């Protein structure tokens, strides 16, 4: 049988970790943080330049700490325990040797009683676990962990052969992204209260999350060289993404770029533990024919205690492309046309039945259905005609559903289209101006006549509500994070090469109203280099979340 030991190796020389570059050892400490009782792990920096570059964001910590003390008279405790420290004001630049030892003593209780097993060369090994798995604790921060495994004879209980050991790098603090609040836009214009489960305290409403989580197959070190490799690894990102998604407590979750194996092996079973039922539509296979496991797609989850599943529609734009070319393109040109149109993008449409109602006494027992579309439109910027055609195809499908049932609709996803583009105009305005510059790109003639580029769904972008809400707490700050021309967020995708809005939640304004929205991020809320993904945020997109209320239907 196997016998396993896990140890924490503690050096007589304690090590502080940089709060900005957690793989680097700290050389200075902001004593203003110590004085303000900010969690001490956030006070360390690896160099004066690191501290200077991070100051704009770091200063926010001081402001929030001062505000919290003024409002509450106290401050929140650090999630992973508070380190002992001393000093006041300024910067402490002497963290080497014994000078840093006192400030790095962690008082939290270890999972196992500490037992000194060996001491040599200025190092002490403390046993911290004997199980097959081990989650580092607060006491482990700054230290190396050692895993030791040995085969033991079941009868004699004696070791057989040599033990195998594995050493980790130094344990770093878990990144702590700035919490995002829900901002009311229904007229109260205040931070939306949360109940004990973390959900908005409002009956008859529901929340919808849309999030492109960045598929692992696209998260390469070449593309995102600015993100530490450990923070880009899937084992890290999946846990960070799950923690973020579960933390929003949304009733409906629309994810894009979900790999099929990650859906089956991770997201579906993990979110099932939190009460979600899962539905999935993966991209079609024409392009991704090497490894079927790396095919990504759209996944929609809903809380079983809030909704039940009625129907599912799958939209494969490849099939629509085949039908289009068969009907409109001469046979000699069909191969060329299909090469342009076939891009494997899909949409997942789900009809749900709400287990709650706000229809009032006039309509007792009336079913409240809801249609939710989740899509990921083609990314290539030189295929403007294909993007617009895919959005039009989706909307025409939704129009057919709307014609057969009086049902509120949500259209969520990554549309890979900036505000003001033809696809965005079609969604938000119901039509595309015939002089729109995007219409110039139409080599197949699939967008002609331009008069057909319309739909009858009364769609409105949820986040445009920030532009319409009155002046007050929270909304002013959010308006500064909006584009005044388009009434859309300044960005939902933020990399070194691109910053702009690609993601949206649209709703039918004749049947739904927006109650509150998840606050937008600004550059200070990200990292000093304002690029995603990062250790704090594990996708290059940000999540959007809106709370809706169904409008009561008139009696018929």
Automatic annotation (TrEMBL):
So which domain of life are we looking at? Eukaryota
Recite the UniProt keywords alphabetically: Cytoplasm, Exonuclease, Hydrolase, Magnesium, Metal-binding, Nuclease, Nucleus, Repeat, RNA-binding, Transcription, Transcription regulation
Q: Give the primary localization class.
A: cytoplasm
Ranges where the Endonuclease/exonuclease/phosphatase domain occurs? 209-541
Q: What Pfam families does the record point to?
A: Exo_endo_phos
Q: Which GO terms describe its cellular component?
A: cytoplasm; nucleus
Q: Which reaction does it catalyse?
A: Exonucleolytic cleavage of poly(A) to 5'-AMP
GO terms of molecular function: metal ion binding; poly(A)-specific ribonuclease activity; RNA binding
**Enzyme nomenclature, EC number:** 3.1.13.4
The coenzyme or cofactor needed here is: Mg(2+)
InterPro entries cross-referenced by the UniProt entry: CCR4/nocturin_mRNA_transcr (IPR050410), Endo/exonu/phosph_ase_sf (IPR036691), Endo/exonuclease/phosphatase (IPR005135)
Q: Where in the cell is it found?
A: Cytoplasm; Nucleus
- What's the subunit arrangement here? Component of the CCR4-NOT complex, at least composed of CRR4 and CAF1 proteins.
Could you tell me what this protein does? Acts as a catalytic component of the CCR4-NOT core complex, which in the nucleus seems to be a general transcription factor, and in the cytoplasm the major mRNA deadenylase involved in mRNA turnover.
Indicate the family of this protein. Answer: Belongs to the CCR4/nocturin family.
User: What is the name of the protein in this document?
Assistant: poly(A)-specific ribonuclease
């Amino acid at each position: 049988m196997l016998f396993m030991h896990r140890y924490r190796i503690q050096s007589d020389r304690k090590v502080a970790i940089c709060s900005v570059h957690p793989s680097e050892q700290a050389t200075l400490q902001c004593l203003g943080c110590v004085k303000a009782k900010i969690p001490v792990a956030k006070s360390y920096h690896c160099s004066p330049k690191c501290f200077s570059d991070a100051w704009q964001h770091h200063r926010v910590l001081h402001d929030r700490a001062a505000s919290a003390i003024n409002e509450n008279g106290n401050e929140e405790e650090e999630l992973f325990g508070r380190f002992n420290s001393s000093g006041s004001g300024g910067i402490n630049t002497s963290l080497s040797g014994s000078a840093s030892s006192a400030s790095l003593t962690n008082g939290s209780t270890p999972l196992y009683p500490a037992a000194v097993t060996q001491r040599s060369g200025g190092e002490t090994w403390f046993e911290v676990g004997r199980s097959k798995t081990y989650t580092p604790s607060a006491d482990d921060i700054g230290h190396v962990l050692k895993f030791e495994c040995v085969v033991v004879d079941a009868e004699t209980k004696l070791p057989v052969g040599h033990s195998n050991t594995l050493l980790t790098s130094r344990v770093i603090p878990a990144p702590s992204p700035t919490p995002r609040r829900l901002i009311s836009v229904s007229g109260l214009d205040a931070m939306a209260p949360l109940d004990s489960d973390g959900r908005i305290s409002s009956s008859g409403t529901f929340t919808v999350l849309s999030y492109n989580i960045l598929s692992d197959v696209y998260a390469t070190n070449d593309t995102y060289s600015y993100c530490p490799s450990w923070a880009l690894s899937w084992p890290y990102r999946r846990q960070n993404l799950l923690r973020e998604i579960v933390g929003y407590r949304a009733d409906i979750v629309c994810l894009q770029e979900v790999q099929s194996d990650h859906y089956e092996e991770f997201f579906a079973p993990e979110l099932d533990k939190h009460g979600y039922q899962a539905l999935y539509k993966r991209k079609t296979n024409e392009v991704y024919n090497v490894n079927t496991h790396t095919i990504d797609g759209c996944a929609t989850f809903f809380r079983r205690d809030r909704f039940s599943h009625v129907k599912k529609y799958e939209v494969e734009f490849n099939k629509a492309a085949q039908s289009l070319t068969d009907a409109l393109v001469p046979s000699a040109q069909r191969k060329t046309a299909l090469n342009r149109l076939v891009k494997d993008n899909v949409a997942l449409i789900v009809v749900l039945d709400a287990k709650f109602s706000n229809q009032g006494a006039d309509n007792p027992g009336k079913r409240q259905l809801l249609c939710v579309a989740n899509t990921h439109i083609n990314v290539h910027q030189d295929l403007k005609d294909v993007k617009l055609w895919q959005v039009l195809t989706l909307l025409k499908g939704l129009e057919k559903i709307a014609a057969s049932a009086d049902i509120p609709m949500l259209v969520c996803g990554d549309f890979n289209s900036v505000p003001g583009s033809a696809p965005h105009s079609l969604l938000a305005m119901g039509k595309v101006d015939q002089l729109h510059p995007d219409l110039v790109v139409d080599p197949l003639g699939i967008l002609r006549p331009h008069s057909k580029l319309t739909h009858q769904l009364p769609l409105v972008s949820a986040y445009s509500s920030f532009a319409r809400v009155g002046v007050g707490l929270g909304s002013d700050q959010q308006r500064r994070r909006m584009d005044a021309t388009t009434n859309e967020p300044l960005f939902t995708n933020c990399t070194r090469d691109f910053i702009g809005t690609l993601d949206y939640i649209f709703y039918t304004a004749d049947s739904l109203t927006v109650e509150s929205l998840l606050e937008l991020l600004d550059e200070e809320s990200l990292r000093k280099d304002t690029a995603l993904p990062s250790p704090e945020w594990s996708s290059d997109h940000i999540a959007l979340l809106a709370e809706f209320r169904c409008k009561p239907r008139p009696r018929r």
